Amino acid sequence: MDPVRNPFAPGAGQRPPELAGRDREVAAFEVVLERIARGRPERSLVLTGLRGVGKTVLLGELRSMAIRRGWGAGKIEARPDSGLRRPLSAALHRAVRELAVRHRAPDRVEQVLGVLKAFALRSTPEGAKLRDRWQPGIDVPAASGRADSGDIEIDLVELFTDVAELAADVGTGVALLIDEMQDVPPEDVSALCAACHELSQSGAPLVVVGAGLPHLPAVLSAGKSYSERLFRYVKIDRLDRAEHDRAVTAPIEREEAAIAPAALAALFEASGGYPYFVQAYAKAAWDAAPGDPITAEDVAVAEPEAAGELAVGFFGSRYERATPAEREYLHGMAVLSEGRDEPVGTADLARHLGRKPSSLSPARDALIKKGLVYSAERGRIAFTVPHFGRFLLTAGD
Prior knowledge:
GO terms for molecular function: electron transfer activity; heme binding; metal ion binding. This protein is an alpha/beta fold. The chain has a five-stranded parallel β-sheet, sandwiched between helices. A three-stranded antiparallel β-sheet has the order 6-8-7. The protein has 16 helices and eight strands. The radius of gyration is 23 Å and the shape is globular. It folds into three domains: about 25-235, Rossmann fold (3-Layer(aba) Sandwich); about 240-320; about 325-395, Winged helix-like DNA-binding domain superfamily/Winged helix DNA-binding domain (Arc Repressor Mutant, subunit A), CATH 1.10.10.10. The protein has helices spanning about 25-35, 55-70, 85-100, 105-120, 150-170, 185-200, 215-225, 225-230, 240-255, 260-270, 275-290, 295-320, 325-335, 345-355, 355-370, 390-395; strands at about 45-50, 70-75, 175-180, 205-210, 230-235, 345, 375, 380-385.
């Protein structure tokens, strides 16, 4: 098959040629946008799931939906040990600029931008040298007495309120999308929850959409106990067989080509229905096929190549971030789970490794912080990356 015409292109956050299996989530967000547009209160949204299930892609789709409705929209990616002020300021600056095009009162827009600048400038520690002071690139004077107290919770509530009121002026809203939300620092998590709580009570037209690993609800709950009622949680999972087949066949048919039923079954078996893997194996199968249609034999030929690329780019890059002690922990998890995507008991893991549970806590905590494992429930731990256990058992050191 002509590689130039290959419709599949696996990549981090890259939209697949067919966004299959996410109709429910897209429809739910459409309801959120419509309810907020009508002045009805609505909870913010949190998407959770393993790596490779398409959370980032879905965030991008939801952002596009908001923009098509005339909303201001900004997207950020949270990072460990990095506060929210700077990235959030940049995201909301973009959203406000999108609203400004439709607003008839430039003075009102500048007023909100001034508040936004004041909020952003508080990210610089007091007493910092001039060369260390960060400038947010907002060409208006910083406001005084609004969103500049230095208390992130107070400031975020005030900033969200002002931005939402600006959106209400033009009969629209603002969507703030936060990827890797589990990496938001605890103090900022608490502030974000408080701001979302304030917005939901007032019916302000600003919605937060977060995405993160399966333990994100626990992170939010630790920030504010009422977070389980504050957000609508949606679990993003792998594709079922019908959704998988649609994700593969629709792009192929648009290229006026075909794939045999046995080849579809083989691709589903290899990928497990995880969207990133679906793209990787389907791309390799297209390239390996000498002609139309793609057959099960083509998939068999392509499978080692796709697995090799995943071993380097998807699994290996993450494994390399682990220390020797952390790798021992990961290998122990892989052995106990027998390479399946299932949680294992931390006590069982300690016995398997011949160690005291307390001595393994530093490795576990570091792996959680690196986003390689998560606490599935009390006393149990699981990989955040699908098929990671299988990779460890087959690749070794």
